[in-house]
Write a structure and sequence with these properties.
With about 425 residues, the chain is α+β, with helices and mostly antiparallel strands. Helices cover about 45% and strands about 10% of the residues. It folds into two domains: about 325 residues, no CATH class; about 60 residues. The protein is built from 16 helices and eight strands. This is Secreted protein. It comes from Granulibacter bethesdensis (strain ATCC BAA-1260 / CGDNIH1).
């Protein structure tokens, strides 16, 4: 990157910050995720990751620790099929066992010093504190949710930086203050935030790899070897969510702790990452076998694991803020993009995701992929046709033929699977 690029991106960042903070999110126009939709989805995909861009938070005065978040929002994620170890008294994950919750919600918080992330048990509690959509968040219900979070041990074993207690009233315990500081960010997000979630189905093996990654992220802080220090540019909630998917080989890792001069111009922004997750499978040039072969990550995944990054089942899921609300102001909540002001490619993609059923409706999604797989198979070119367009050594040509065969075997399997899935959804 040249200094001209540096200056251009610095000026662009300033302009974007000014322009994109002008419009509030209209959460009322979107269809919230329902229990029936969740059941239909998990029949097909028992393991998944929800990567969620959540809006700013605006707690009303008079309810303990103040919480007025920035317009960049926050990023949390939910791992269906991973559960918190209740006996560890510290955030540690394992594969869910019979009788445990459906999954765990992950929160990363700048308050933390002895952990990078926390774990809130169960989807309903992570997103809504167990509240129904038509329920009113009263002060009493707010207190009850915080007590439930404490009983569930959401912050067990997690120390906070000392300065987080500077404004704590003497009559409030440190433990109560910690839950007041983290409510709506690390658990019960919907008390004060709306969430756009990009859902990615994963295999059990993928989930185990994510679990190993997550536990390794907390290990140095649990042992006391290091003190966790959150950084918007070098190690934020978006880095953690992005790299959890990278542990499942969804995409390349996003490095953390890079030099500030580099990191300040290239860091994950929640709403951008939501779009990036949604568009990952859409951006693969599935009609161009040569381009797929030239992609080192794609080639390695197909040759070693007989698969590509997920396509069917990558869905947008919306979790609204609690509309009837006496504790948080949920009107005019902001969530900005880091985008190019004129081109606005992220904003255009975001609009596509919200308007095209294949991005948010499970049946439409599976049908779209079924038809795409059928079209790709019908328009198949021979391997020699592609080899004429590649410059390869004899060994490379042999390797490509293996890749080519694996690719069309993959498409055949995917077509069969989507056919069966459509039949199952119809029943």
């Amino acid at each position: 990157m040249t200094w001209r690029d540096v200056r251009r991106r610095a000026a662009l960042l300033l302009l974007i910050t000014i322009l994109c903070g002008c419009a509030a999110e209209d959460f009322s126009r979107l269809h919230p995720h329902t229990e029936a939709e969740e059941h239909a989805y998990t029949r097909l995909f028992p393991y998944y990751v929800d990567i969620c861009a959540t809006s700013q938070i605006k707690k009303k005065p008079g309810f303990g620790a103040s919480d007025r978040g920035g317009v960049g929002g926050h990023m949390g994620f939910f791992l269906r099929g991973a559960c918190a170890d209740r006996d560890a008294h510290y955030p540690v994950l394992h594969l869910c066992r019979p009788g445990e919750e459906d999954g765990v919600g992950i929160g990363m918080d700048a308050h933390f010093s002895s952990a990078k992330w926390s774990a809130a048990r169960g989807r309903s509690f992570f997103f809504h504190g167990g509240m129904s959509p038509d329920e009113t968040l009263t002060p009493a219900r707010y207190t009850q949710i915080l007590q439930q979070a404490r009983q569930n041990g959401v912050l067990d074993g997690i120390s906070f930086h000392d300065d987080r207690f500077d404004e704590k009233p003497a009559a409030v315990s440190e433990e109560d203050w910690k839950y007041q500081l983290t409510a709506g960010t690390d658990f019960a997000l919907g008390m004060g935030r709306g969430s756009y979630c990009a859902r990615v189905p994963v295999s059990q093996k993928d989930m185990l790899q994510i679990i190993d990654f997550m536990n390794a992220q907390n290990a140095p802080y649990r042992s006391g070897k290091e003190v966790f220090r959150w950084s918007v540019f070098t190690d934020n909630c978006g880095h953690l969510a992005h790299n959890a998917l990278s542990a499942a080989e969804y995409w390349p890792e996003w490095p953390i702790d890079r030099p500030m001069l580099l990191a300040i111009f290239d860091f994950p922004v929640p709403k951008n990452e939501y779009v990036n997750v949604m568009m990952r499978s859409q951006s693969l040039p599935l009609e161009d076998v040569a381009a797929l072969y030239r992609d080192d990550d794609i080639r390695a995944m197909l040759l070693s694991e007989n698969r590509l990054p997920p396509g069917p089942g990558v869905l947008s899921v919306f979790e609204p803020p609690q509309a009837r609300n006496q504790v948080y102001d949920v009107d005019n909540l902001m969530l900005l993009f880091y985008d190019e002001a004129i081109i606005g490619r992220y904003r255009h993609r975001f609009q596509d995701i919200q308007s095209e059923p294949r991005f948010y409706d499970l049946h439409a999604n599976i049908l779209w992929w079924h038809d795409r797989y059928a079209q790709l198979i019908a328009s198949r070119h021979p391997a020699e046709w592609w080899l004429q367009r590649l410059t390869l050594t004899p060994a490379g040509r042999a390797d490509f033929r293996i890749f080519y065969d694996r690719y069309y075997e993959y498409l055949d399997r995917q077509l069969d699977w989507t056919t069966q899935a459509l039949h199952q959804l119809g029943n």
